[in-house]
């Protein structure tokens, strides 16, 4: 895959397009059935190879403004360019709670776009959901 822009100049939608394309490449080659951690490692490796800044299994603090502060409210599977959160699954079917959880992650981090990618589906297109927190340019 050849990029026409540097990763640092890309907006959320452009980053998401690259993530989705790489995910399709991985799924075409390996199909469903591997552990989530394997798909994560493959995705992270390929994104970094293209020059993207990628954080993996990043602990995200939680503060509810009422004296409850947690060092780790959740762990983000993958964060790309500090703009897009990617939640990975390797299960037979997506459930509604996966997208709702990702939306909560986006709200906590104040990020606009998340991708839920379920490599466990027979057709990857059926396992990809965009989750939006507010307006995206």
Give your account of this protein's structure.
The relative contact order is 0.18. α1 (12-30) crosses α2 (36-49). By secondary structure, this protein is α+β, with helices and mostly antiparallel strands. The chain has a five-stranded mixed beta sheet. Helix content is 34%, strand content 28%. It has helices at residues 12-30, 36-49, 96-109, and strands at residues 54-63, 69-80, 84-89, 113-118, 128-132. α3 links the parallel β3 (84-89) and β4 (113-118). The mean pLDDT is 94. The radius of gyration is 15 Å and the shape is globular.
Query: What form results from the Cα inertia axes?
Result: globular
Beta-strand proportion = 25-35%
Task: Report Rg.
Answer: 15 Å
Q: How many runs of DSSP E, i.e. beta strands?
A: 5
Distance between the termini: 24 Å
Q: Share of helix among residues?
A: 25-40%
């Amino acid at each position: 895959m050849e990029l026409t822009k540097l990763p640092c100049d890309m907006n959320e939608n452009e980053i998401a397009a690259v993530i989705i394309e790489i995910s399709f490449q991985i799924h075409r080659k390996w199909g469903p059935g591997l552990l989530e951690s394997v798909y994560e490692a493959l995705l992270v490796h390929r994104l970094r190879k293209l020059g993207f800044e990628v954080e993996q299994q990043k602990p995200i603090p939680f503060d509810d403004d009422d004296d409850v502060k947690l060092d780790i409210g959740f762990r983000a599977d993958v964060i790309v360019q500090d703009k897009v959160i990617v939640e990975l699954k390797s299960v037979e079917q997506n459930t509604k709670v996966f997208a709702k959880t990702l939306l909560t992650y986006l709200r906590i981090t104040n990020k606009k776009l998340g991708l839920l990618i379920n490599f466990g589906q027979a057709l990857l297109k059926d396992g990809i959901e965009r989750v939006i927190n507010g307006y995206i340019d």
